[in-house]
Amino acid sequence: MKKYLWIIPIVAIFAIAYFLYGKKQIIGDCCPHATLYLQPYDNFTQNEAEKLKVDLDNHLREILYGVFEVKVMPNKPLSDSFLGETKKKYRIDKIIDSLKEDADNENIYIGITHRDICRDYKNGVKDRGVLGSSIADYHACVVSDYRLKHKKRDLWKVVTHEFIHTFYGYPHCPKDSAHCLMKDAKGKADFSNKHDLCGYCKKNL
């Protein structure tokens, strides 16, 4: 046993460094790492956000290679200034603009709401309702369960989808795999059959 005693101080030093300097510094550039800040809005409660955090903690480690920490921010109201032209949906670009100040490539801000959210499309459609959207250059995205078919069960999937867009700058699944989390929803609000990344996306992420 004595010949293994030299390991103890090394382990102790690593543990102290981990708690003093944080895991990002210890990890360095060996693998992807980021903190996801969940920003609940309006009637999306802190309790709901904490449950979403648990879902993400459980699934991200299974789906993605890297170290990802999830934190829940205090609830904020959705400003009326975020409303679109119809005054019924909240504009994603305006919400993201309010989140981007503290965001960077290692700190991703994710707005979460029960309200209907919208964005413009290239075909000229204004304020089209969506599940979520991101602006990678701003390191932020917004997700809503307003249109989601199975809200409690599948919200983590939509958040993961938008996080991958935001953090990796990765597009929708090039193979359009039916079970891939990165498959383009194409206006459909059902994530029931999406549980993981397809082999192609895992390889190329």
Structure commentary:
The chain is an alpha/beta fold and 205 residues long. It has helices at 7-21, 23-27, 46-63, 92-99, 151-168, 199-204; strands at residues 33-40, 67-72, 90-91, 107-113, 117-119, 128-130, 132-135, 140-144. 34% of the residues lie in helices and 19% in strands. It has a five-stranded mixed sheet, sandwiched between helices. Strands 3-5-6 form a three-stranded mixed sheet. Helix 3 (46-63) packs across helix 5 (151-168). Residues 16-27 have low confidence and may be disordered.
Strand order of the largest sheet: 2-1-4-8-7
Give the percentage of residues in beta strands.
15-25%
Identify the overall geometry.
globular
Helix/strand order, N-terminal first: HHEHEEHEEEEEHH
Query: What Rg is obtained from the alpha carbons, in whole angstroms?
Result: 19 Å
Which short descriptors sum up this protein?
alpha/beta, 6 helices, three-stranded mixed beta sheet, five-stranded mixed beta sheet, 8 strands, 205 residues
Structure described in brief:
The protein is α/β, with parallel strands linked by helices and 205 residues long. Helices cover 34% and strands 19% of the residues. A hairpin with an 8-residue loop joins strand 5 and strand 6.
